[in-house]
Specification:
Layout (H helix, E strand, L loop, with lengths): L1 E8 L2 E9 L4 E4 L5 E3 L6 H17 L4 E5 L3 E2 L2 E2 L3 H13 L4 E4 L1 H11 L10 H13 L2
Parallel strand pairs: 1-5, 5-8
Antiparallel strand pairs: 1-2, 2-3, 2-4, 6-7
Helix pairs in contact: 3-4
């Protein structure tokens, strides 16, 4: 199984790709791991964003995309309008299944099965994308 973990934060999406199972997986290193959309995107910007994500899914034979589910905070979803916009674009246009994963679910999966620290990225945002992909593995 090939899982793409996408951590949405602000205008950007950090992407990590894993192949295998939770017990035995490897990290696929695509040519890119960061996808941004301008603060005030034009229609062409959104089309380019969608095409880039589609090409990533096709080139890596992605079976499922796992996105961070925005948590509730004071009656509204936490996170800014840009991450909400990017989430909507991905949900509406993705040709592969998309799974929204709650932060507690990710934490539980990482705690239960442990992660391979040798292949988990060191940067915080890519590390969270790794954790999302790891949670999506069966």
């Amino acid at each position: 199984m090939v899982v793409g973990g996408i951590f949405l934060k602000g205008n950007g999406a950090r992407i990590v790709t894993l192949l295998g199972t939770r017990a035995a997986h490897t990290r696929i290193l695509p040519a890119f791991h960061k996808l941004d959309l301008h603060v005030k995107p034009t229609q062409e910007d959104v089309v380019a964003f969608v095409q880039t994500l589609k090409a990533y899914c096709d080139e890596n034979a992605i079976d499922i995309l796992c996105l961070n589910q925005r948590t509730m905070g004071k009656g509204t979803h936490a996170g800014g309008s840009a991450s909400f916009r990017n989430e909507g674009i991905i949900l509406a246009t993705s040709l592969v299944p998309v799974q929204l994963i709650h932060p507690r679910t990710t934490a539980a999966a990482v705690k239960k099965d442990g992660v391979d620290k040798a292949i988990r990225p060191d940067t915080a945002e890519l590390g969270k994308a790794y954790d999302l992909a790891f949670t999506g593995l069966s």
